[in-house]
Amino acid sequence: MMMIIGRLRSAQGRRWALLLVALVVDLLHSVLVEKRREAAVAQLHWLRSRNSCEPLYGRIGIFIYADQLERYEGTIACWKCYADSRGYEQFIVKPFAEDQRCQRRCGHIVSVFFRRHCVAAVYLDRVDWLLFVDADSFPVNFHRCVEEFIDPDYQIIHYERFFSGEVAAGSYLVRNSDQSRDYLLDWAEQSFVLNQINVHNMDNGVLQLHVLRAVGVDHNRLALCWDKFRNASSLVGYFAFVGCTKRSLLEHRPAAGHSRRSVKVLAPLGGWLRDVWLTGGRWTDRDFVLHDLKRQNAFLKRFVSEPSCPSSVDTAGWLWSLGPTKLGYKVSVDTASRLLAKAERRSARYHPDVFFTEASSSLVVSQYGN
Length: 370
Prior knowledge:
Elements: H1 2-50, E1 60-65, H2 73-86, E2 89-93, H3 100-106, H4 112-123, E3 129-133, E4 137-139, E5 156-159, E6 172-175, H5 178-188, H6 203-215, H7 219-231, H8 235-251, E7 263-266, E8 273-275, E9 289-291, H9 298-303, H10 324-329, H11 333-350, H12 362-366
Parallel strand pairs: 1-2, 1-3, 5-7, 8-9
Antiparallel strand pairs: 3-6, 4-9, 5-6
């Protein structure tokens, strides 16, 4: 009797084992089918995206000025792959190790924050448009094009940082022209201003006034903002200065004979780059460039894996580790918009001088997916 029961149990065990194997095989087959489908869709997007960036404005260059290259090897590799896929030029320049042309023109500028704009001016003649980016940024979606953000009616294109209201110093688009070159060189020569200021945020603070001068803001308004800058003794005072420059730019009407088309400032989230921490490291298909991804940054550990170029994908997803991490940090536009709205409310509490009613970013947030 016991032998019969043992045989039955053994047979039942084998059936369960076979059933389990069948379930695993079926699951693996489903996963493989889905992966093949995703690969086919990605291949289609990749082929489309390679043809979507038409060279409407001539040669495009990407310029990165970085001192500790090993610190940014992942993001720089990503930029190289992106530039190669688009046919863009790429210039990686190390401070104080520039070529002789840069040394002759910019050697007297000691501050790296200002020297980098001088060096960018020297590199301008190699392309028609130059995209200046920080080394701790990278393109998260390869289907986005630099050409999307070029306005041929302008010489220099800046964007406003979402959380601070500043015209961003860390990334801009600049045309190869004498006017643009003079603009960058003039900005680079203003490092001496920092000796007169207590809270200046390096080249960022100087840039706010530089933009106002470039578009022809009234001298009295410039003097008012300069006084706020010079007298700032804390971040509260500094953001009062930023609020002054922001209001001045919004309210400015160019005088007769002065062209406002020298400098364009894109609205918050209307530019090509945003800070990744605004959404807790999450991104969407709408994003182009994410900023603030240093090697020691915890966000970067979620992203960077193998610095090898993609062969059949339309995004920089190849840079991320596989599994829940990648899937968990790519979100819908609606989710990102909610996170950005929360970030705006938080920033408005800290910087009320920048987030005034007529300059609210809420409309920009609501149109994030457009």
